[in-house]
Structure formats: structure tokens, C-alpha cells
Fold this protein.
Amino acid sequence: MKVVIASDSFKGSASSLEVASAIERGIKKADKSIEVKKFPISDGGEGLIEVVESLQGYNKETITVKDPLFRDIQASYIRNEKTAFIEMAAASGLPLVEETNRNPLNTTTFGTGQLIKDALDKGILNLVIGIGGSATNDGGIGMLNALGAKFFDKDKNEVSPIGKNLAIIESFDFSALHKSIPKATISVACDVDNPLCGINGASYIYGPQKGADKKSVEFLDQSLLRFSKLVNKEKEALEAGSGAAGGLGFALLSFLNAELKSGIELVLTAIGFEKALLDADLVITGEGKIDGQSKRGKVPVGVAKIAKKFNVPVIALAGDIGKGTESLYDLGIDGIVSTTSRAMPLEEAMKNSLILTEEESFRLWKILQIQLKNI
């Protein structure tokens, strides 16, 4: 019997690979004969690099880039000869900025552009970019600047590519944009459907968590709208996902001819998940907390959607089962099981998440063995 394990990370307690390994240990403890294939999964945001790094044939490339506040840091992406997986959070992520310094008026996606440039400089023309977890709201001008674009104020002075300077850009020059961009295929893992501007846009929805107060949110929203008109990309600003990562989705779509795709589906396709399902008998997936919101591009539903194409049953493990999970049964998940064996504080559950996951996987397999004996 073959079991495919494809779990997300348990945020704050265990990586996707650690979770998959814990599930495997539990199954093997119950039945050593079970064939297990592990696919640690990311929906394209945090954890994308770790997932791809676990695959054969890919290597880590580490370079010096600018963080969201233009400080030098080391950031990595994963590549082979043809494809590069880039996680924008590695260079422009919110965790890179101390809470006291978080302010999207002052942050940039320049470092993300440096990662893209490095891959293109090395002749890699197939790019997969995850754009979750940003500290930025610069409309992607930092990324574009790193790739050769320039932006000027009314006095023809080049402006620094940060959020607040969107408001003073009067002209631009894309003539030196990286020569490989027209030849590149760029796929963007993006599971939000926000447009660039408006009450559902980048600034209003995500600005506050990046440190923007009400006044800054309004200013940034108007600045993004103004910029989209200046570069004659008002149509692209309305596209679902253009508001992702503070407008980085907009810039990738508008100037790099990128295609915004479901993050989980993009990752699953890239790592060969479908091939593993051809002879699979069961899929086990999971995430730290599963609830009704999991249907919005989260790993368990994305895994289940593909598994159903091959008529493979799916069981989801989760540390916490919230409200609204009933709807997930209509989306391909056949069973949902909590890894928490008893009532306990959240801190304790997170601290012991891998032990609890292994134990629950063992118990789950013992129950499944009863069913298998009856078949």
C-alpha cells in the first residue's frame, strides 16, 4: 500500500518536512510495510524555498541583497539549470524588520529584484516567485529598480524606490530593464485576489499589519492609484492579485509579463505531485489550523483538489480544527483529524506538535487497519 504525505507547515512550531516525517514515523510504527512518499508543501509563501530544497536536482544560491530597509543581508533562492524558485520574503519579508521599525512608507522590494536579477544573470529563464509575507507597499518599484528601471521626481532627480516616494514620481525610464525579461517565463504564486487599490486593495487590507496607521494607509492607496495611472497600467491594477505583497503582484504582472497563479497548485505541479498519485492508495495532508478559511487557497484543499482527479481519498491532520470545516468535505477532503489528544494550552500543543502528530498518525493507521481488514 502506498501513502502520499503532502502537508503544509504547522506555523510557529514545525516545518512542512518535519510534519511529513512525523506522520511517516507514526504510520511506520503501526505498519512497517507501508510505502510512504513525502511531499513537504508550501502554498508559495513562507516555506517555498525549504520545500524545493528538499527535492533532488536543486541547489541553494545565496547572495548579498538589500533587506526592506536597504540593509545588507544574505538571502537565498533555489535553482537548477533551468528553473529558479524565489521567495520574496527571503529578501523583503516582514520578519526582517523589527516591530519598532515597521512602516511600509519606508520599505522596498529592491532585494527581491536582486534575487530575480541574479537568476536572470545566470541564464535561468523559468522563474517561480512566491510573494507572501512582505514588509512592503512600494508597488514593486524597488524590484523594478533592481532590474534596471529608474524613477524620477519633478526635478528629474532619481528617487529612492520606497513606498512613500510613489507619490513624487513624475517620470520613469524602463529602457535599461534586464534584457532577459522578454525571454523569461515568470509564474507567481499568489493566493490573494486583492486589486492594487481601493478598500480591498494592498494598502487598506495589508498595510496595517506592516505598520501603517490610518493616515498612511490612505496616502499609500492614493499613491498606488496615481502610479498605476502614470505608467498607464490602470487595467492591470484591477486584476485579482495585483494588490499582493504591497503591489509587487501588480509590477510583476505589468512589467515582467508574469502570470499570477494559485500558489498551492503551482507548487504541486512544479514538484511532480500528480505523478506520485498515479499508484497512491491514500493521501494525508494537513496544516496547523484547519477551518472554513482553508478553502481559500490553503494546502489541504489544494492537495485534495488534485487527489480527486485520481480518485485518491484524502485525510487531513490539524493541530486545531476550527469552524466551517463542513464545507471542506465537498472540496475533496474525506476526513479531518485533530493531532491534539487532550485539552491542553496552545503553547504546550505547539511545543509538542511533532510528538502529537506522530502519535495521532499511529492511532489513525490502527483505525484504518480495521477498515482494510473488512475490505
In short: The chain is about 35% helix and 20% strand. The chain has a mean pLDDT of 91. The longest helix spans residues 353-374.
